[in-house]
Design a protein that fits this description.
alpha/beta, binds NADP nicotinamide-adenine-dinucleotide phosphate, 43% helix, Rossmann fold, 9 helices, 8-stranded mixed beta sheet
């Protein structure tokens, strides 16, 4: 069955490769990038290699709540169903400086969590037009305690990391919050034909290189992809496509997937009280409350 899939982060990286794979399998893709030029370039490039690909460009800067609101409302008002909302766009900051968005929010939290949170809410009418819809968020195993680098350390009194900012901590905290959002969304959607799952693509140095600089970027792009622990773009996008459209997941929600099977997320990600607390904070920060 052909689906209509809205993919964010479609301009480059895993989002772009996933959009291409979905289109090659006959799905209609709403390829969403930060700018109109990026969305149109990616769409044209896909259609050049596959003239039958049904890809339509969309654009929104996810670091601006106003842009997300404008885009989400306009997309829902088209009156068409969206079968799958696949949130791929995400950032891991290269700068050690804490960066704020136009709304004054810490940028990692804003792009990785607040934008998907608001966009999902605004696109619910379009998802409800589908007989069986899915919301898929791209998480990361880095939200697990003990993962390499600065530890995950979510402080509800300082969600914007005004104190103790570290780009890795911001990233891991955001990916924990993505899990809370996904699981809580699944609980709130109970009884409706919409499911919510998260997926980890694995460690994909080829695309993750974009979040590094200098020698590290060269190392990520050219050396790490040959290591046994690295995941190829092809394998990573297989996982994303599986979670987005595989018929075996019809009606399955509230799960975390990797390598096309269910994987464990952290104990903290399953904490219902913390998920509810984060949901309330996200509602306030996005103006949905
Ligand atoms: N690669 C890995 O090893 C890995 C592992 C686990 C999870 N992930 C997750 O997988 C997802 C994709 O990662 P990737 O490796 O493909 O990263 P990437 O190559 O850096 O791509 C990130 C994508 O997000 C988009 N994006 C960033 N900020 C945006 C904004 N403000 N508005 C709109 N789009 C924005 C980028 O668009 P621009 O071109 O406009 O910047 C780009 O398309 C992310 O959520 C990441 O956290 C990746």
């Amino acid at each position: 069955m052909s689906k209509t899939v809205l993919v964010t982060g479609g301009g480059r990286g895993l989002g772009r490769a996933t959009a291409e794979k979905l289109a090659a399998r006959g799905h209609r893709v709403l390829l969403t990038a930060r700018t109109r030029a990026a969305a149109e370039d990616a769409t044209e490039a896909i259609q050049r290699t596959d003239p039958d690909a049904r890809v339509e460009p969309r654009w929104v800067d996810l670091s601006s709540l106003e842009q997300v609101r404008f885009f989400g409302v306009a997309e829902a008002e088209r009156g068409e169903p969206i079968d799958v909302l696949l949130h791929v766009a995400g950032i891991l900051q290269t700068s050690k400086e804490r960066r704020l968005t136009v709304d004054g929010h810490e940028e990692t939290l804003a792009v990785n969590v607040l934008a998907p949170f608001l966009l999902t809410a605004l696109l619910l009418p379009a998802l409800e037009r589908s007989p069986s819809a899915r919301v898929v968020t791209v998480g990361s195993r880095l939200h697990l305690p003990g993962s390499r680098g600065a530890p995950v350390d979510f402080d509800f009194a300082d969600v914007q990391l005004e104190h103790g900012y570290n780009p890795e901590r911001a990233y891991k905290n955001s990916k924990l919050a993505v899990m809370w959002f996904t699981y809580e969304l699944q609980r709130r959607l109970a009884g409706r034909p919409i499911t919510a799952n998260a997926v980890c693509p694995g460690f994909v140095p080829t695309t993750a290189a974009a979040s590094t600089r200098g020698l590290m970027r060269l190392f990520m792009a050219h050396v790490l992809p040959h290591m046994p622990f690295a995941t190829s773009v092809d394998a990573a996008t297989d996982s994303l496509v599986f979670t987005a459209v595989d018929p075996s997941l019809d009606g399955v929600g509230g799960k975390f997937f990797g390598e096309c099977h269910e994987i464990d997320s952290s104990a903290q990600s399953h904490d219902v009280a913390q998920a509810g607390r984060f949901w309330t904070i996200a509602e306030h920060l996005t103006g949905l409350a």
